[in-house]
Amino acid sequence: MARPPASIPRWLAPATAALAGATASVAALGPLGAGLVDHRVPPLLHDRLVGSAAVSLAVLVPLTLAAALLLRRRSPAGPLLALSVALGHWYLAAELVLVPERTGRPGDDEVFLPLFVAVLLLATAVAVGAWSAASTATTRLDRPTGTLVGVGLLMGSGLFVLGRHVPAWLDVVRGAPSAEYLAGPGAWWAVAFQELALLLPVSAAAGIAVLRRLPWSGHAAFAASGLLAVVGAAVGGAAWSSTRGYAGPTVDGATSTSAIGLVTAVPAVLCWVAVARTGRQNWASPVDHPGAGPAPDVGPRASSPAVAAPEARSDRHPGTIPRPRSAP
């Protein structure tokens, strides 16, 4: 089977590695590491940032480094993995910019704003580059898997976003807000807006596109499922971190949040299982860099040169009918 007609730009691998390094630096400088970044958040939300940083270091950064290595090797799996993690980097970095309360609380996180912006810009560049480099042949999902992924994206986003924020919003309306809301109303609304304005629309649009089998639905499925899985893991880690003292979530609440996080990872697992099951032939040969020319044919050679030559011309010019050589 022919290789997928995709190309990986040379800058994408180092940009992906730089994205992993920038996110690791944010976590290492924050409350989980050296503590040099003092976020302007209450203690409860401070612990949530610790949990998010732990998930970034344990899950997001290793996956991003793996994507950079695959891109370096020009593997078709590289753009898919980079696309799956890039939006997660963007989401967590945006949270660090939007959540802190800039008035009335001590802190110095604004000093590190250039680092946060660097993560946002690198994540955007990697997402755009990976989307362009990913081959449609490797992201195409068969109908049963596409149905499962589409339904999973719709249900996962609805369960994760609406299931978390609608009950909390109703508590606020009834005058009995949660401890998390009371700890920082501005931060709570910032997170709610981020998930309702980014996570829910992206996941819902990708799910509908996959169910309708639109041409770009495979790319969208990998991007949205990766974002949903990363955010679900980060929220689960943050919930467990918040159980350490304060009037935060209980162990039961953290367990239920972690269960929701596991459910949100199902679409991403289905996408990668589908690729591993149906696209093994696409991983056999590397993807060309732009301008590098076509890769040599590694298929079996015909025994007769008179037959092999027209076949090679047909491969170089798809859609043409090879003409037989005239007799001497």
Detailed description of the structure:
With 328 residues, the chain is mainly α. It has one domain (12-283). 68% of the residues lie in helices and 0% in strands. It is built from twelve helices and no strands. It has helices spanning 12-29, 43-72, 77-98, 113-133, 136-139, 143-173, 179-183, 185-212, 217-241, 251-264, 266-278, 305-316. α6 (143-173) runs antiparallel to α11 and α8 runs antiparallel to α9 (217-241). The longest helix has 31 residues, at 143-173. It is globular, with a radius of gyration of 23 Å. The relative contact order is 0.14. Residues 1-5 and 280-319 have low confidence and may be disordered.
What is the count of β-strands? 0
**Count of domain modules:** 1
Ranges where pLDDT stays below 50 over 5 or more residues in a row are 1-5, 280-319
Shape: globular
Give the SSE string: HHHHHHHHHHHH
Averaged pLDDT: 77
The percentage of residues in β strands lies in under 5%
By DSSP (H or I, 4+ residues per run), the number of helices equals 12
The first-to-last residue Cα distance is 34 Å
